[in-house]
Design brief:
By secondary structure, this protein is of the alpha+beta class. It has a single domain, classed as Vaccinia Virus protein VP39 (Rossmann fold, 3-Layer(aba) Sandwich), CATH 3.40.50.150. The protein is 33% helix and 27% strand. It is built from three helices and four strands; from the N terminus they run E-H-E-H-H-E-E. A four-stranded mixed sheet has the order 1-2-4-3, covered by helices on one side. The longest helix has 11 residues. It is globular. 19% of the residues are buried.
Length: 95
Amino acid sequence: MVFSTLTFHHWGDQRRGIAEIARVLAPGGRWLVADFFATGLFRRVRRILRLRQFPERSTLDPMLSSAGLSIVEGRRVPGFGGQLGVLAIAARPAS
C-alpha cells in the first residue's frame, strides 16, 4: 500500500513519481492518493493560470496508463467545492 495525502500537487515530476510508485507497488497493491483534482470551475481556473500541478482526469489517466496503472475507485471528499478527491489506483491486469 502506498499513501500520498495532499502531496501529489507538490511533486516536481509527477510522471516520474507515478512510475516509481508503479515500480514498487506489490502485485495486488494499491496506491491511495488524496489530493486536489481540477473539476468544475477550478478546471477553468487551472487552465487560465496554467496550474499544471493540479491534474484533471484527462491528464491524470494517461500518466497512470503509461505506468501500467489505473484508477479502480474514486470519491470526492464533501466540501472543498468537490475539488478534493481520494483515488484508489492499482496495476492494470495483464492482458
